[in-house]
Design goal:
Layout: E1 7-8, E2 13-14, H1 17-21, H2 23-27, H3 39-68, H4 72-96, H5 101-105, H6 120-129, H7 134-137, H8 145-155, H9 159-169, H10 176-179, H11 191-203, H12 205-236, H13 248-254, H14 261-269
Antiparallel strand pairs: 1-2
Helix pairs in contact: 3-4, 3-6, 3-9, 4-12, 6-8, 11-12, 11-14, 12-13
Bound molecules: protoporphyrin IX containing FE.
Length: about 270
């Protein structure tokens, strides 16, 4: 069996490592705008991030479906995988930090107004968690792939919505207003939900573990934000961003913003 040739049904050719993974296409996607040595690193890192964002979104959809199907152990397993990817995403910033401010300046102006602000997959990730913002969609051209994807995710229930509905099915008195909330609205802290979560933590080991995996995920995203702003500070100081924001000053306002505020609020009350 080992030497049996695999035929790719799409091309009717023998399947190889290169044809399966589309290596030729992949290696043709790095198109620097300068001849500066470090620009390739900058492009590769961003492309790798976008690929991991794609995988994280794929797993987030899975985690939501599993919760909707009351498969909480399998949902936890998926959340663990997402967290492991987030750790890699944070660690990757170390590589970019080997690029000095002067090395970055050799090609920064070639980036023009291109910026991480325009990463629709990062916004999709925020939306999938429950950090919704209709305003953020406005940056993406109408009719584009990015705009369609964000509009869909804005209206779709988030992981938090699926979690609340799961808790209701587990017998917790989640108020109807939360179960029927507008999925396009940002998740706000709620006293009633916090009371339920305190009960979960005190008497329900299965579901308190699930809560902990949700906190892991939230903390993982916050960790990325913190490391990104530190990297930005050490690379461009307090200069404005290519996307037009105040740069590190703006990014600092997003650090520590939780996706699941109730899961953080209850820590003090436990
Ligand atoms: C030298 C490296 C980098 C610098 C100097 C930098 C700088 C910045 C700045 C100044 C902003 C604020 C928006 C703006 O005005 O442009 C920003 C936002 C952003 N960057 Fe970076 N960045 C770097 C690398 C990365 C990498 C590797 C990623 C990975 C995908 C990334 C993803 C993002 C995202 C998603 C945002 C939007 C964050 C938000 O609005 O909460 N950046 N970046």
């Amino acid at each position: 069996m080992a030497d049996k040739q695999l035929i790719d049904p799409a091309t009717a050719e023998t399947l190889t490592y290169g044809s399966y993974l589309r290596i030729d296409d992949l290696l043709s996607l790095q198109r620097p705008r300068s001849t500066e040595h470090d620009e390739i690193l900058f492009i590769v890192i961003h492309q790798v991030y976008e690929l991991w964002f794609k995988e994280v979104l794929h797993e987030m959809d899975r985690a939501r479906q599993l919760l909707e199907g009351d498969e909480s152990y399998r949902a936890q397993h998926t959340l663990k995988r997402i967290l492991t990817i987030l750790k890699v995403l944070v660690a990757q910033l170390d590589i970019l930090e080997t690029m000095t401010p002067l090395e970055f300046l050799t090609f920064r102006e070639r980036l023009e107004a291109a910026s991480g602000f325009q990463s629709d997959q990062f916004r999709q990730l925020e939306f999938a968690l429950g950090l919704k913002s209709e305003h953020a969609i406005g940056r993406f051209p109408e009719g584009s792939r990015a705009r369609h994807a964000l509009e869909r995710r804005l209206r779709e229930p988030s992981l938090w919505d699926a979690f609340l509905r799961y808790l209701a099915r587990e017998g917790y008195p989640v108020p109807a207003a939360h179960l029927r909330r507008d999925p396009a609205a940002r998740v706000e802290a709620s006293q009633e939900i916090q009371e339920i979560l305190i009960k979960v933590y005190r008497g329900d080991p299965k579901n308190s573990e699930l809560c902990e995996r949700m906190v892991d995920l939230d903390e993982g995203v916050q960790e990325w934000r913190y490391r990104h702003v530190k990297m930005v500070e050490r690379t461009i100081g307090t200069k404005r961003g290519t996307g037009g924001s105040a740069g590190a000053e703006y990014l600092k306002t997003t650090v520590g913003r939780p996706a699941f505020p109730d899961l953080w609020e209850i820590r003090t009350k436990l």
